[in-house]
Design brief:
34% of the residues lie in helices and 15% in strands. With 368 residues, it is of the alpha/beta class. Helix 7 packs parallel to helix 9. The chain starts with 6 loop residues before the first strand and ends with a helix. The model has no long low-confidence stretch (mean pLDDT 97).
Length: 368
């Protein structure tokens, strides 16, 4: 019996390139002719050291990371960095305060966690719903803040910044977990960038941290040693056993991104894929509704309702059932917002997006 083709629109862990999975399969039992699995390789070995060096060097090349930045491969996910960022950076200035943009669930969680370590200022009026980025004219930035923090792409609500906030010289920190390497980025504009790998650059387990060297050495005394950037940078991410397998997967995914034209090529494809879905929504006369303001709609995560603005539960269930029959999985919206969500990370192909757009058109024809 022929296997049904599955299209994974999951929000993370997400689809990985097939060529990467085949390479992992091929090398799994005998990595690089060593006679052991990559899972059994010592993190202190020369062979693993080569993987670490290659991963870092690919990242530096693909992101054009300046020499005065350290690259670390840590554990604890984005949520671990919600603590690590203030623990390492809030002490940069004596007031121990930081500015946060709260434009979705993840930046809200980051701001709440940071409150444990200093005074947190939300730089804009509180949003009634996470469907927009507040106009810069409404921002109140604190010049004595140690850093300004924002989440570049909110996976749950589908809000993405298409610009870099101006902080008037204050250190800028961003969570790029869901759009790193989906488009070019000027790393030099940031003091720190972090990203969980499991959306665009690998599998769950490793969190990438890119930090400017002059920001090291300011950790609060209560900072756990595994979260201390200075210690991890000095030890080349080997203070404790790193997530070896996840770093190896990241290395292969970065190679795949490089071989497919780098972040500029990814951006072209991501615009093409997201446009296909947004076009169907925009031309549906309200059958499909995306609540996010057009200017900040995400190219990575597209949330929408079916039938009407607040969604028709029965229709949405039918939509998901029909999608599942066609092999399209993980389209259910986040439990906090409901509806449908399509995640279109780098490994999701144009053909995958086309298949979803076609299904959406067919479903609308049948039920409108």
């Amino acid at each position: 019996m022929e296997e049904k083709q599955i299209i994974n629109f999951g929000s993370g862990p997400a689809k990985l390139p097939k060529s990467v999975l085949l390479q992992v399969q091929n090398e799994f039992l005998n990595y690089s002719g060593l006679g052991i699995s990559i899972l059994e390789l010592s993190h202190r070995s020369q062979d693993f050291n080569k993987i670490m060096n290659k991963t870092e060097s690919l990242l530096r090349e693909l992101l054009n990371i300046p020499d005065n930045y350290k690259v670390m491969f840590l554990q604890g996910g984005g949520s671990g960095q919600f603590s690590a960022v203030p623990l390492n950076l809030i002490g940069l200035k004596e007031d121990k305060c930081a500015d946060y943009f709260v434009t979705g669930i993840w930046s809200a969680k980051a701001a709440k966690e940071a409150e444990k370590y200093g005074k947190i200022n939300i730089v804009h009026p509180k949003l009634d719903s996470y469907t927009k980025i507040p106009d810069p004219s409404s921002w109140t930035l604190n010049p004595s803040a140690s850093y300004v923090y924002y989440c570049c792409n909110e996976t749950v609500h589908g809000v993405e910044y298409n610009f870099i906030p101006e902080t008037n010289g204050v250190v800028l920190v961003t969570d790029m977990s869901s759009n790193l390497l989906s488009r070019p980025v000027d790393v030099s504009k940031f003091g720190l960038i972090f990203a969980g790998a499991q959306k665009n650059v690998g599998c769950a387990g490793v969190t990438l941290v890119i930090v400017r060297e002059d920001l090291l050495g300011h950790a609060l005394k209560e900072c756990p040693i595994v979260l201390d950037y200075t210690v991890q940078a000095e030890m080349n991410s080997l203070y404790n056993t790193p997530p070896c397998f996840s770093i190896y997967i990241m290395c292969l995914v970065l190679e795949w991104i490089k071989n497919n034209g780098g972040s500029a090529a990814m951006e072209t494809l991501n615009k093409q894929k997201s446009s296909m879905i947004y076009d169907v929504i925009n031309e549906s006369n309200g059958f499909y509704v995306c609540p996010v303001e057009i200017a900040c709609r995400s190219r990575m995560n597209i949330p929408f309702r079916v039938g009407k603005k607040e969604g028709d539960d029965a229709l949405e269930k039918k939509f998901l059932d029909g999608a599942s029959k066609r092999g399209m999985i993980s389209l259910k919206g986040h439990r906090s917002v409901g509806g449908i969500r399509a995640s279109l990370y780098n490994a999701v192909t144009v053909e995958d997006a086309e298949a979803l757009a076609e299904y959406m058109k067919e479903f609308m024809k049948e039920h409108q």
